[in-house]
Amino acid sequence: xxxxxxxxxxxxxxxxxxxxxxxxxxxxxxxxxxxxxxxxxxxxxxxxxxxxxxxxxxxxxxxxxxxxxxxxxxxxxxxxxxxxxxxxxxxxxxxxxxxxxxxxxxxxxxxxxxxxxxxxxxxxxxxxxxxxxxxxxxxxxxxxxxxxxxxxxxxxxxxxxxxxxxxxxxxxxxxxxxxxxxxxxxxxxxxxxxxxxxxxxxxxxxxxxxxxxxxxxxxxxxxxxxxxxxxxxxxxxxxxxxxxxxxxxxxxxxxxxxxxxxxxxxxxxxxxxxxxxxxxxxxxxxxxxxxxxxxxxxxxxxxxxxxxxxx
Length: 311
Known about the structure:
CATH class of the largest domain: Alpha Beta
CATH architecture of the largest domain: 3-Layer(aba) Sandwich
Low-confidence stretches: 107-123
Largest sheet: 7 strands, parallel
Structural class: alpha/beta
CATH topology of the largest domain: Rossmann fold
Radius of gyration: 19 Å
Strand order of the largest sheet: 7-8-6-5-11-12-13
Helix content: 25-40%
Distance between the termini: 29 Å
């Protein structure tokens, strides 16, 4: 791992110390983001670790510009190592191994084009619908940072979010997936779900699938409390898409997703819910309704998802 130039974006001193302790021995150069610095250039770094739990960092114009840059090297988006003040030797080793695995993913896929990979016949391929709400972006970041190389599977993400925050959220998801050949698009850019795409549902959109991967977009209902509707998206994909559909419910407040899964359960191959979500209401609602095949940690949910993607 020698020669890696690593930039760390966090204002949390505990997280910074953890990252320095674990990763400094692996890097040729490790620098910490300084809010007062004016000379930070994205091209100076091979990899950036962004603490997505840090609101000050995620709201920084400089950080958002770095995440949005089309850099030669992908950006690895990270979460804090631990909430404690010290790390055990085993925690340090585990964190180092995860970082090395992420770097290997980047190195092994440098030749993969970053543009959309188009297929003439989308019928019959697998689709995963991921629903999330409160604390969802941080969980998605942690999940997608280990995303395997582009596959023939499609992913639809329905995340409760405001219209004003959607573009920043989209940049964040694109940065987490960069370097593995996936095309990240939103529902205003396309009307067909294709293999190798991650489709982000805009909060102002209801997506109605018509078969063969095609869909039409209509405006979100005015009286809808949370947008986009995870219930509606799951039901529409499962009942109309025509391929193998599975569902993953991550962190979120309320019970959005439960009704949609119940209505379309016979058309859904597999339902996974997150047992260790920061906000448990959404995944627990599905699990307690007897609709979940696997109620597992985020790490284990990733293993199930990535096992399907590696086809």
